Amino acid sequence: xxxxxxxxxxxxxxxxxxxxxxxxxxxxxxxxxxxxxxxxxxxxxxxxxxxxxxxxxxxxxxxxxxxxxxxxxxxxxxxxxxxxxxxxxxxxxxxxxxxxxxxxxxxxxxxxxxxxxxxxxxxxxxxxxxxxxxxxxxxxxxxxxxxxxxxxxxxxxxxxxxxxxxxxxxxxxxxxxxxxxxxxxxxxxxxxxxxxxxxxxxxxxxxxxxxxxxxxxxxxxxxxxxxxxxxxxxxxxxxxxxxxxxxxxxxxxxxxxxxxxxxxxxxxxxxxxxxxxxxxxxxxxxxxxxxxxxxxxxxxxxxxxxxxx
Length: 309
Description:
Layout: E1 4-21, E2 27-46, E3 51-56, H1 74-86, E4 92-98, H2 108-124, H3 134-144, H4 148-153, E5 156-160, E6 165-168, E7 175-181, H5 188-202, H6 213-221, H7 224-230, E8 232-233, H8 236-242, H9 245-255, E9 260-263, E10 270-274, H10 277-290, E11 295-301, E12 307-308
Parallel strand pairs: 1-8, 3-4
Antiparallel strand pairs: 1-2, 1-12, 2-4, 2-5, 5-6, 7-10, 7-11, 9-10
Organism: Actinomadura sediminis
EC number: 2.7.1.148
GO molecular function: 4-(cytidine 5'-diphospho)-2-C-methyl-D-erythritol kinase activity
């Protein structure tokens, strides 16, 4: 069997609406995912046992020291799920090349899991009579995490439930982004817990999240200015409480000309929407000179999800 390589994108949340805490410990979400052109690459090839190696992608300065290489890596769990479904042994070597910031709120770990699902399915499944259809991979992805199905799908989509139930959104045009990374990550469970704590201290009920009509209209129109006004993240106050320095990063981006700014997902990466590619490049340079971020990255979206290359 020949190795199979899959390219998979990062995401930014254009809207992250978080409902009240459920009895099972989760929250109902309205999560507008947007895939952007920062990619990890996962290569699967036959091996005597399941092994994972992780390296920074060529030209990338992603810090990979905290990425697990055992069963703590979602990609390993993905490989085991595919093997179990196909009745195969999980004898595979997975090489992960990372360009998506680690623990940055851009779903890099979930992206790697999605890529591993697709790569292992292509490696082990029968191409003449495949047992795993795209819908099967989406279902397996949902068992791994709320962000995994979107990494398979890509584009722009509205996620409901825990974020795993996806509906593709209508988008015209291309949107241009700058991402400012921070030293060290933020724990997603810790950010959700802080969100719950802030809400409890504030008192009053927590409304069920609803899809933003203004945001969906801006996407359909390809209107970057309208989109910038509609960006929302219910986790942002919690991320700022846990990492107050992010407020200065957001303010700097706005002062330097970003159309819109928000914390990406659970953070700590900050996302800035620019008017066009030139505006994104200029903003990234200005943020670099300001010294407010560990690294700045430019990207555009939407882009396709996990793709065999």
